[in-house]
User: What shape does this take?
Amino acid sequence: MSETARKAAGLAAPSGDANRWKALVFIALAQLMVVLDATIVNIALPAAQEDLGISDGNKQWVITAYALAFGGLLLFGGRVADLWGRKRTFVLGLAGFAVASALGGAATTGPLMFGARALQGVFGALLAPAALSLLAVMFTDAKERAKAFGIYGAIAGGGGAVGLILGGFLTEYLNWRWTFFVNVPFAVVAAAGAYFVIREPEGGRNRNPLDIPGVLLSTLGLVALVYGFTRAESDGWSDTVTVTMFVASVVLLLAFVLVEAKVKAPLLPLRVVTDRNRGGIYLSLGLAIIGMFGLFLFLTYYLQIVKGYSPVKTGFAFLPMVVGMITGSTQIGTRLMTRLPARLLMGPGFLVAGVGMLLLTQLEIDSSYPALLLPAMLLLGLGMGTAFMPAMSLATQGVQPRDAGVASAMVNTSQQVGGAIGTALLNTIASSATTSYVKDHIAGATGRPQQQLVGLQGMVHGYTAAIWVAVGILALASLIAFTFVNAGRPSMAPVTAGEGAEDELPVPVVAH
Assistant: This one.
């Protein structure tokens, strides 16, 4: 495309910002820190619980405090990035996350730990949407965007598994506190690099006053939804507080939609989510994450409790999934994104991941890692990596620059809510199936060794029952991707203003 045509389309030249690839390094580093933090603490939790004297009833708050703050404030964080500027919000989020991590590592009591985790969630909610929206506004050339989002997608998908590896190393060879302290150098390097390297493109700010009713309704609604699923996991679906949280979340989120449809400057412009492609992305991505989060949990327990793996060995057992995700995202997704419509990467990607999940329904106590788990993890990684990459890119492509922050926040929100649902839903299914199996088989077990065997068999039976549900969820994610996502391959042709386009800023379009 000529320079004149590129300027007419409102696009930065590929060589316009010489530092954009350096900036990607620091954005990716920050994203890795946020994603691995979601799983790194899981490995360290038993040691931290014992050291700080946290009761079994309260230990969930180490995870829940982070999830509630992060999930509840994501839309607000995305809007702040649009208002203050993405670079400023990104650096502030990193600085706050570093301080919160240091407080968590130095915690001497349970409440201090819970507070530090909540603070991590607050600054993570600023950081995550700012990182994705920076990519969206800095990389506008189709091929460069494919490469940048390939790297970002690999980190977003594989960071959780990296967290398990790193958490195992730090817990086994140093101390659980280092699962928090390790974030500080990550954050300092990323913040310093971002401050000196990132040059946010001019314009695209949303300087409208903050939608306070929208902030309150969305935050309370999302907090109630995430807490409802977390509570369901520990206290059951019929628990009074669980039901109350779900009812409250529905009422609050419906009120939020009504408010957003009427106010002049909404927190979440409904045009962001009512777009067919973006709506399909948010929905299919959230469903895929439901399956993934449940799988991380089950395989971690299976490898450590049933197979007797150490934390480090467990972490390394997830390496094929990380390799698959990196390969799927950077080699398959990146190479094909400019040649194929997104649905022909996302739909098959989720199906390949579903085949990997289907293999895991054959899990037994004595299952072979090389024969069953390794190929299953490779397929899961390849499929998810291939699907995540175009999803991350298309979710922010075509959106008005002033809405890039909230569009990015919606990607993170679908992942966060999907993770909460996946953990609660699949764990409940697994627990119920385990209880039923043990009840039916324990009578025939004579002696303690036999009873322990039945317990382990029941545990694995519960995992496979839940994994069957995850297979169905991934199939549904694939169907939604095929059905809703109808954008063609990216094209850098100039945008033609049409009816109602006077409010739009020029953006890359897609060829059908």
Confidence is low (pLDDT under 50) at residues 1-16, 492-512. The chain is about 75% helix and 0% strand. The two ends are 19 Å apart (CA to CA).
